[in-house]
From TrEMBL:
One of its GO terms (molecular function) is nucleic acid binding. Residues 9-161 form the Tc1-like transposase DDE domain. It comes from Streptomyces roseirectus. The lineage of its organism: Bacteria, Bacillati, Actinomycetota, Actinomycetes, Kitasatosporales. This is Transposase. InterPro entries: RNaseH_sf, Tc1-like_DDE_dom. It comes from the Bacteria.
Length: 198
């Protein structure tokens, strides 16, 4: 395999966030039920693509890119060129080969994306099995974000949502124990390079 030798193992996933907050358990005085007030029912959405990057002997890295949709229906997500740019930026930051593991999203399988991967000797890509989000540690990042930074919080406008998501992801970038725990939670083995074959 071209990029598998001494490479970063990189998992990718995308998630969408809206102005309507995720709810989670909280506490309150008996008889005083907490209420989260939401302004309107906006469908504006923020999409975020994230990479969790693992390599023995190196701290785990979280690289992310938000994409706010200016349209009112808020339904446009990442194009294959957005993923290309994210992977190129990650390669520059990591400074090494990458083995990419992601799902079967049609954008990941686009002809342009396949050509881009084929033409890069530092990049090898694998698809996860269908309907197997439990094998992707990036799902753990979204779960942590929704249970902490975004939980029980109503956002007045898209800018406030973007700011909160970026802040939450930046905080997670410095919590290597949480990033490592996301991989452990999948049950997948920690990457190692004992194999000497090419």
């Amino acid at each position: 395999m071209r990029a598998a030798r001494d490479a970063w193992l990189v998992f990718e996933d995308e998630a969408g966030f809206t102005l309507t907050p995720p709810t989670t358990r909280t506490w309150a005085r008996r008889g005083h039920t907490p209420v989260v007030h939401v302004r309107g029912r906006s469908r504006r959405r923020l999409s975020v693509a994230a990479l969790l990057c693992y390599k023995p002997g190196h701290p785990t890295r979280l690289i992310h890119r938000p994409r706010a949709d200016p349209r009112r229906d808020g339904r446009k997500s990442f194009a294959w060129t957005d993923y290309r740019d994210l992977l190129q930026a990650a390669h520059q930051q990591l400074g090494g080969n990458m083995v990419l593991v992601w799902d079967n999203l049609n954008t990941h399988l686009a002809a342009g994306m396949r050509r881009y991967i084929t033409d890069r000797d530092w990049l090898t890509a694998y698809q996860l099995p269908s309907y197997a989000p439990d094998l992707n540690p990036v799902e753990g990042i979204w779960s942590v974000l929704r249970r902490t930074t975004l939980a029980n919080r109503a956002f007045a406008d898209p800018h406030e949502l973007i700011t909160a998501v970026r802040r939450g992801l930046r905080q997670l970038q410095y919590r290597s124990n949480v990033l490592d725990g996301c991989l452990s939670g999948t049950g997948l083995p920690w990457p190692h390079y004992n194999d000497t074959t090419h």
